[in-house]
Amino acid sequence: MTTSTQPGTTRHEDTTATANRRAWLILLLAGLVEIGYAVSVGGSKGFTDLSWSIAAGVFFFLTVFTLSLALKNIDVGIGYAVWTGIGSSGAAVVSAFLLDQPLTPARVLWLAVIIGGVVWLKLASSPKYASGQA
């Protein structure tokens, strides 16, 4: 949300905060699409299954596109780490159901560590925390 100080003007902080929130939502979407891409590549069996291969191509385009949109307002290193964290953790869980791949307690533990790292990266990237006010 932006607030107006005078007709036709907006405060810079409000538009920056809105853009930052939007970028994080787009990054979350990019991570979710990355899950679709990773699972599709696994299901394609080396791109020998046509339907899974087509799905992989569509998901690839969408994940790179949404990631590039998010990186307009998020540092590349942080954005990429969050994107891959969401994608790798999500792909492990989804592929356990769709592709009957094992999800052992040890894997769940280390996936939880990845997810915890993603959460801490998000928290560390907030303007309040970065400026030392947290």
From TrEMBL:
Segments traversing the membrane: 23-44, 50-71, 78-99, 105-123
UniProt cross-references to InterPro entries, sorted A to Z: EmrE-like, Small_drug/metabolite_transptr, Small_multidrug_res
Any one cellular-component term (Gene Ontology): plasma membrane
Primary residence: membrane
Membrane protein topology class: Multi-pass membrane protein
Locations listed in the record: Cell membrane
GO MF annotations in UniProt: transmembrane transporter activity
Domain of life: Bacteria
Protein's UniProt keywords contain Transmembrane helix: yes
UniProt keywords, alphabetically: Cell membrane, Membrane, Transmembrane, Transmembrane helix, Transport
Family: Belongs to the drug/metabolite transporter (DMT) superfamily. Small multidrug resistance (SMR) (TC 2.A.7.1) family.
Protein name in the entry: Quaternary ammonium compound-resistance protein SugE
